[in-house]
Design goal:
Elements (H helix, E strand, L loop, with lengths): L1 E7 L3 E8 L4 E5 L4 H10 L3 E6 L5 H4 L2 H7 L4 E5 L9 E3 L4 E4 L3 E7 L8 E6 L7 E5 L2 E2 L2 E2 L7 H12 L7 E4 L4 H11 L4 H15 L7 E2 H7 L8 H7 L4 H14 L3
Parallel strand pairs: 3-4, 4-5, 5-6, 10-13
Antiparallel strand pairs: 1-2, 2-3, 7-8, 8-9, 9-10, 11-12, 13-14
């Protein structure tokens, strides 16, 4: 499979996933459908369906338009998330096939919204898998707890997503990496991996390049929200368990003016 970034709005990403043997494609969160269709055309791909991570307008707001532009297109979205334009509701564990070689597994990752879905994508043997995490997991960050609880975010990040294979590429919904790593440094000033990644991310952005994808392994090394299970981080934050630590770090981030 091939994955292409499509920068949308101010700092959003849509993604084109192409099954190489058939040139059939899926698109994640096509908020600007014309851009997405142009990208598909440039890569000689035919879009078969939409994968919506959650109902917020900057992710689902292009669904109705893409249905007009591509008659008969399927739009997948979480069964409890009230996704605009949704034709096919998915729950945790549901599977979707793209083309000949690409398999997509729906993972329920609630908190930012209650019905948020992340999509875990695998292809031919020897290819690293990918996960499209919308606004649940960002590079070095996580989404605000708009509809859910710290318990849910802990389950989504530290159990569901952290259990994916470490080389899994992480494609998130926004370009927030530099700010997230600057905040992560305030949480763990002695973490050399955070420092290295921040320096790299700043260079990427100065060159006009994305900082996505990350990997599950890198998030486990640099993302304070994913690291909430670590006793040393809990001690630093002054909490006694992972959920309280995650909640406290989120409050710190919400109040941070970096």
């Amino acid at each position: 499979m091939k994955i292409h970034h499509i920068a949308c709005l101010d700092d959003n990403y849509s993604y084109l996933i192409i099954d190489e043997s058939t040139k059939e494609a899926a698109v994640v969160d096509p908020v600007e459908p014309e851009k997405v269709l142009k990208a598909a055309q440039e890569h000689g791909a035919q879009i078969k369906f939409v994968l919506t991570t959650h109902h917020h307008w900057d992710h689902a707001g292009g669904n109705e338009k893409i249905k007009e532009l591509v008659p008969g297109i399927k739009v997948y979205g979480g069964s409890v998330d009230n996704v605009k334009g949704c034709t096919n509701k998915v729950d945790n564990g549901d599977k979707i096939t793209l083309g000949a070689d690409t398999q997509i597994l729906s993972l329920h990752t609630p908190c930012h919204t209650l019905g948020h879905i992340s999509y875990y994508v695998t292809s031919k043997e020897g290819e690293e898998p990918a996960v499209f995490t919308g606004d649940t997991l960002f590079v070095a960050g996580c989404g605000k707890f708009f509809e859910g609880t710290a318990e849910q975010m802990h389950q989504s990040l530290c159990v569901t997503l952290a259990s994916l294979p470490k080389p899994t590429r992480v494609y998130c919904g926004h370009e927030y990496t530099v700010k997230n790593l600057q905040f992560a440094q305030t949480v763990e000033p002695d973490n050399a991996k955070i420092k290295q990644k921040l320096s790299w991310a700043q260079q990427q952005r100065q060159a006009g390049l994305p900082t996505v994808p990350s990997t599950i392994e890198s998030e486990m090394e640099t993302n304070p929200f994913v690291r909430a299970d670590l006793p040393e981080l809990q001690e630093k934050i002054g909490c006694h368990n992972a959920v309280d630590t995650l909640r406290e770090i989120r409050q710190m981030k919400d109040n941070w003016r970096g």
